[in-house]
Amino acid sequence: MKYPCLFTLVFIWFNLNGHAEEISQVYPGKLLNKDLISTESDPVIDLKFKGTENGFLAFKFRHLDRVTIKEIPIFEKLVLVRIKGANNEPGEQRLVPDEFIHGDIIVREEIIDNGPVASEDFMYLGVTTRTDLKGILLDDREKILSLFEDLQHQSSTLQFANKRLGIQELTLTRAQIYQELGIFYESRINSREENLSIGGVLDQATYAPGDTAKLSVSARNEGDEGVVYRVLARSVSRWEWLDGKMFYLGDINAGEKKLFSRFFPIPDDTAEGDYYLRIGGNEYSGAKPQHRMIFKIRK
Amino acid sequence: MLISRTSLFLLNLIILLTLIPVLELGATDESVDEVDWSDSLFLVRNILKDLLKKTEPIEQYKLFIRAESSYKQIGEVISRNEVKELREQLSNAFRQLEPPAEVINGFKLRFTLQRGNAKRYYLSDAVTEQMFIGYLNAERVSAETIRKSISSGSHSLTFRETEPRYSTSNPEQPLRGINFFCANDFTAWASSIGRSEYALPRKFMVSEIDDPTASYWSVTKWKEPDLSRRESWEMFGGVFYNLFLRGKAVGELPEACNPEVELRMITTVSSAKKMYLKRLKAAL
Question: From the list B231, B236, B256, which residue is nearest A281 (CB)?
Fold first, then answer.
């Protein structure tokens, strides 16, 4: 019995004097959770120019919620344990069970897509147009397009007003229109004027004053493979109501035909007769293909 | 010996008397030729001097025709210097002839003197359908071209494919509804066959002619006052011409066939004087 008691004493002495531990550092470990403190909702309307649909400039409206979220992160509690006095040792990392460290408050913003702004009336440039079920608004009365008939006009800030949703603003530039329509004048292409034909078709043979005529202008590339035509066209006429409407045909590859339609409201006081106009083309290489047309107005 | 000397003298005298008529005749013939051309030359010079003293244009033109006719007769026998001098005098006289108030050309189209601010010129009456079908038949203009070039319903022209020829049921009616291209082609054709200078009126003429009922094309391109519109027309290839429409100038596309538009031409004072001289010569 003498020896076991001695062994216990030696063990106690050794632990008290030679191998005592100390905690030198506390720090966060793995992120365990986040405690939500608050969320702030900020519903907004997202408005983007989407190029053309059915030959009209198209704008997409979506409901978005810009949510501001405040959270506190919760981490594991880790300690670093060393043998007392052994400061040069790396020590041992230990998880402290049932204890946690709370981090600083985190503020972040989250955009939540709440779907299209469907079937809503928006008023812009004196007209009211309704979005479809996909939230697409078509400039079907060509009010926006008409702003850019003046070739000097480079950008417009548009306001779309809805009684419930307020006013949405969008700055539209000529460059954006060209880009969406595939007209990149800053990059060179292999382009020639041969084998480019321009045509135009009216939706009726004759019109009455007050009617709206739809004119579809087409351009066909009958050239060889690899030849690309880059075409803008414009109506040219003595009559103001027929003059100056742009047809954004863009890049036309070999064998391809492109179509762009515009509407021509015929003034109520237009006299009977034949009204002449030209579709004047402007191709990247400088070619100006022409197509002659007549509007027949009968009462 | 005395008889013989007398006989010899008498013989010589008889021979001399016999030869005198022959010598005189020869001398007379030569002097007549000389008197004829010098008199004619003198006459032409005097006619040209007198010409400008006449106040009635018709008298001026009659004298000019006499002078020109005499010049043609003597032109080959007078000296080069005299020909040159006479030509200059004739040319000066032609320039100074009073322009007639109106002239009629080979198509029986009347041209009336217009005294504008800048220049005098002659403006024609409207070209009739009869005159126009002369051009269509001579140049064999296709019916398709006419369909595009003249407003349908504004004329009485018909095309018989069996012959093929154009005809009109209303020959004296002014041709109406013609576009610029066709009007311009007609004036070129008329100039080539009539050996006269015809053209469509110029813009300044259009603005000077005070006729609120007249409608016709001008040969001058329209300069659009709206700068941005003009720039876009240039960029997209639109070219417009001055159209004189019921007394007002407007810019119109050359392919436009306005049913009111007639075809009128202008000619120069010089061409008009030549036309007048031609008709007067034929009448004399």
Answer: B236
